[in-house]
Design goal:
Blueprint lengths: L1 H23 L16 H9 L11 E4 L2 E7 L5 E6 L6 E7 L1
Antiparallel strand pairs: 1-2, 2-3, 3-4
């Protein structure tokens, strides 16, 4: 019985330690007073296209975790999901293959 409790405790601890590391990889944008507008998908798409990126028309650009999430068609035909700060349009996080 003690061995089972020890195993369960160790397994739970390992999961708990892994969760913050995984959560740290999720892009998040801090939006302050510099971005007062309500989210407008067409305007966001236009701004991201201005960076020279080919935004897919479906599902377009959406607001996600205070960021712009854009579905990008890459030059090799593959697709990526990219996250941008809505104020600066700096990319947040990496390119996530779709």
């Amino acid at each position: 019985m003690h061995k089972l409790l020890l195993c369960l405790t160790l397994a739970t601890s390992a999961i708990a330690l892994a969760m913050p590391a995984q959560a740290a990889r999720v892009p998040r944008c801090e939006v302050g007073s510099a971005y007062p507008e309500r989210f407008d998908a067409d305007l966001a798409e236009q701004r991201i296209r201005g960076l020279g990126l080919n935004v897919k028309s479906v599902p377009k650009v959406e607001e996600w975790n205070n960021c712009f999430r854009a579905y990008i068609q890459n030059s090799d035909g593959s697709e990526s999901i990219m996250y941008f700060d809505p104020t600066t349009l700096q990319q947040v996080g990496g390119d996530y293959p779709r």
